[in-house]
Structures are given as C-alpha cells and as structure tokens.
Amino acid sequence: MPLSKLEVLAPAGDEERLGAALNYGADAVYLGRQQFGMRASPMNFDYEQLVKAVNAAHAKGVKVYLTCNTLPRNNEIPFFERFVKEAVEAGVDALIVADIGLLMLIKKFAPDMEIHISTQTGIVNYVTARELYDMGAKRVVLARELSLDEIAEIRAKTSPDLDIETFVHGAMCVSFSGRCLLSQYLVNRDANRGECAQPCRWGYHLMEEKRPGEFFPVFEDEKGTYILNSKDMCMIDHIDKLAQAGVKSLKIEGRAKSAYYVAVVTNAYRMAVDEYYKDPDNFVLPEWIRDEVFKVSHRKYCNGFFFGTPEESQYYENSGYIRNYDVVAVVEECRDGTVYCSQRNRFFAGDTVELLAPSAKPVEMVLDKLYNEEGEEIETANHAMMNFSFKSDIIFPKGTVIRKATN
Question: pLDDT, tens digit, for every residue of 220-248?
C-alpha cells in the first residue's frame, strides 16, 4: 500500500480550464500569473481572478498551487515580494519554485507558505531532495528522467514528511526536465522564462556547405525529420507502480491545452486512481478508462523514463497531434426529460455522440431530434455557442461534455 492517498493534480491555464479541472475530479490544480510562471501567455490569472479561483477550488475541497518556477533575472526580483504576499492574501496552498534565491525569499516573505520544488530544478537523487527539505520544501517535483526504481530509492531515503510529485501525462521535452535553450537561440524566446516556441517540434533538413540551397533529409523522408520531437507521456496503466514507488502526486501536463483536454484527462486519472483503491493488490485498469486518454488531441504515447531508458519515445514522422474527437456541446441543465446545451462545434440531428460526465463511463447516444431555444425542431446546431436541447431519460450534470468522433 502507498504511504498516502494519491493526489490527481490538474493544470489550470485559465478560468475555463480551472472549471474543467474542478468539475472532473482534480484533488489539486496548478496555475500561474502573468509573472514568474513557465507559461508566458495572455492566459493565466490576475489578482482578482486568482482570488476567485482559490475560492472556487476551496469550495470543492481542491488545493491551489501557484507557479513561480521561472529563472528570474535581477530586474524581476524587486517584484517578487508583492507576488508572494498576494499569493498569501489570495489563500494559495503552495508556491512552486525552481530558483534557490526565490525559495529563500518565500521563506522570508511568507514563512508559513508551503513550498514545492519545481521539476525545473532537476532533482535526480535523494541527497538533493533531503537538502531541499531541510531548506523548507514540503514537496519535490522530480526530474522527468527518473525511473520508478530511482524514485522508490529517493522515497526510501528521504523524510516521509516530504511529498514526491511526478509528471505522469502530457508533452515531454528532449531537454533535461524542461531546461532548454533551443527556442532562445533560434527565435529569441526563452523557454526558461515561459516563452518556448517549441522548435523541438519543427522538421529539420541538412544542407551541404558547397551546395547551398540543396537540402537533404536527415531521415529517409521527403518531409525531413523530426529528430527532436518526443512522444507524449502516459502512465495511466501504471497507477499501482507509481503508488508503490512512493509517489504522492500525479501531475498532468497541459496548462496551454484546451478545457476539453483538462476535463477528459483529469477525469481519466481520477477514475484510474479510484479504481486502484478498490483493490490495490490486484489493480487492472478497465479498458474504457484507458480509452479516454486517446479521445483528446495527443501525440503518440510512451512511458517516458519510468521503466529505464525510453525506447521508441521519439516520433519522426511529423509533429502533429492525433485528434479523433471534437467537442460539439456542453450541458447547461437537465430538466423534465430535456437536456439543455450550448454548442461548441457544428453537428446534426441524427449524429451519434458521447456524453462524458464526471467520474462516469461515457454514454453513447444518437441525437435523433434537436430543438432551438423556442422549442422548434432544427436539423443542425451550426451557430457558435447557440443554445439548443434534446430529449433524454438520463440526467446529466451541468458541465457534461458532448463529443463526436471525427472519423
């Protein structure tokens, strides 16, 4: 049996994604603000949104971890005190940090704040984990390059009061635990400051210096080769092994992914963890739960480094995603045998869809008839965010996702 209950930790890139994580079973979420986080984009949370997010999460018993895991330069340090104090005021449960200087400043500005050490720090041994614990860390997010055996040794040789967190699902970098300079060199966007342009996903060719303009594929493919393009990580089949290695928190990558992605993957890991605890000694993941992670946009999957040196973890054909389902609507309300929804993508009366509610097996239905807001029968829901309804004897909770296979 594991040392403690596994935590499903979901990404929350903005308020919509936060809502998806909360609805679909996250035990905790991680999010960022405009400064000091590894996702520099117009998304993230301002102070008012942060307060609202923490209140919404805490109302559901969900913890909120705030990222400050960039490697800040001198001119950013004066702004960090306010950042920390606003996190305290908002009620954030922990700060995720990679820089030792920022760790010391958190202890100074907010001595009671829980501190998590980011994967960006590159923790690969128990000595480093011990030292960080002695410096005040409550949790270490281990480097993604560790095997389950190495994680188990770190667990055995550190304080049981130190939590261990690992990434278990999502995109991976060919760089060491996300520390990469490709983007900064090629397009002057610093990956270590949340601005990665993902040049590892680009296609590359060789050019011989005496024959400029003549390009040669690095791999036998006329499109070039994606020599730096890693597959996505997926460990949903191995919840039992993660627990037995002493992992406390299962972290899902994807603050830049869609709300649908957050909902489906969070839901899958929530159900997988719950299934594990029904009989930890004889865990077998039901096929329909495994199928869920293939119903979001994803690259081909692998197990990363958890079972040693990864084999076939690179994908050389292209850098695109596999996408087999589209979200067509979201349930707003069920009343008197009618399901009221808002549209997300066009679909038609007679289409076969799946309805995915939190912690439930998806329900397949043929929507024979659709109705507009006036109750008139319509052939298609073809206007963005339009309201429509259909009849059903099944009651679906608000926020249920309606999706349709693309092939």
Answer: 444 444 555 678 889 999 999 999 999 99
Centroid of chain to Cα 102: 24
* Cα gap 269→235, rounded to integer Å: 9
Res. 140: pLDDT tops 70: yes
Mean pLDDT, range 58-84, rounded to an integer: 94
pLDDT at 186: 62
Residue ranges and CATH numbers for the domains of the chain are 7-172+232-302 (3.20.20.70), 325-405 (2.40.30.10)
pLDDT band at 216 (very low <50, low <70, confident <90, very high): low
